[in-house]
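Supplementary Note 2. Why include the ligand at all?

Several targets in our set were suspected to adopt different conformations when bound, so apo predictions alone were not considered sufficient. For every target with a known small-molecule partner we therefore ran a joint prediction. The input for zinc ion is given below.
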Amino acid sequence: MNHYPDELNALIELLQSLPGIGRRGASRIALAMLKWSPEKLSCLGGLIESLPRAISFCPDCGNISSHGTSCPICLAPGRDCSIICVVENFTQIIAIENSAFYRGLYHVLGGKLAPLSGNSIDEKNIEKLRLRLELPEVQELILAFSPDVEGQATAAYLENLFSGRSIKITRLAQGLPAGSDISYADSATITAALKGRR
Ligand SMILES: [Zn+2]
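The joint prediction is reproduced in token form.
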């Protein structure tokens, strides 16, 4: 048991719930914050407090965006509107964007099929995707799901659902470690998986 004031212990406990931060790391961050100016602390507090109001989801693709507007990717000039890459959630968009190979658009499904646990995908997100596929410029749909059972079941489901259309439907090439999450794959692996899609 440490001898920190309750407030500091409460902060350490919260920080510890962040991914990749253990008790020791959380303590180091909290103690470093004690050396910050009140202005800097209040700036951090204010930013965190504003997140639920400020961050929303892009009405076009479901990526995270600011205050209900379209996301920077949907708004960026020069993106290839003929390709839509379907991902499970926005963290995979960040990983794919970091690889800097893909220049098309995205569609966030917000989940994947999990036949064993009975989980399904929000119908609204599938309907939105269906509407986007009606656009004449769309020529290819990339199903970029993680190589696990649920990801592959979801890809198969969408492939079947949209197979009657005159668009190309591709999946990422093998190469991502089985059971891994695309969000944590390195750029070279993601680029190779996208380049080899079929
Ligand atoms: Zn968007």
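The first helix runs from residue 6 to 16. Residues 58, 60-61, 63, 70-71, 73-74 surround zinc ion (CB under 6 Å). Comparable summaries for the other entries are listed in the accompanying table.
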